[in-house]
What does this fold into?
Amino acid sequence: MEKYKYLIIIVLFFVFSIVKAEKTKDKVLIFSLTKGYHHASIADGITAITQWGIENNFDTDTTTDVLKFTDDNLKKYKAVIFLSPTGSGFFNDEEKAALQKYIHNGGGFVGIHAATDCLYDWEWYGKLVGAYFTKHPKIQQATVHVTNEPHIATKGLPPAWQHTDEWYNFKDISPDIKTLITVDEKSYTGGENGDVHPISWYQNFEGGRVFYTALGHTKEDYTTDPLFKQHVVAGIKYALGRKK
It folds into this structure.
């Protein structure tokens, strides 16, 4: 009987450990509503981020429903990921207040590609994401450079590499963002932000952790590009509050 008692204790210990791990596992919400242009790569992005979550110990939920932006629902998530949403005016005052409260309470925000091409009617969001998109030239290859800003989202990336994407030009660039990656305007045609053309950045904003990358237009970004994967996964980890 004594032998079984110890066996039961061991089994209960492992069950408790599993339940505890499940309760503390990070969870993110991927939001990809498009009221304007719909990027075909969104589906690939959702599939990729879901898989990256399995590999990096975070769970994912996906939605295009603004009704998910409530205090009670957002409490479930350590970070929200705006995956190429487009359009303006889709959040009402209550939903805006819920996202603001979420950030003020230390929530993480990840913006990918067209996250700067939405909600032009909401000044607070523009400051949160760090800039607004203006226009882009045709998809083409360009040289990107990692800045000297130390950050998990660029750790281990080469100092410079060639990448094919849709190179966004920006307006209303916040002076508070810390640039992680720039694109060399001499390496392609159509750049309008000058010698320091930011492509990825981060900031601590009103209590929350914000990471943005303008990369991510093409299907190949999510399916065959290991540097993009490394960059975005690390950015998500930053938004989750992880150090590595």
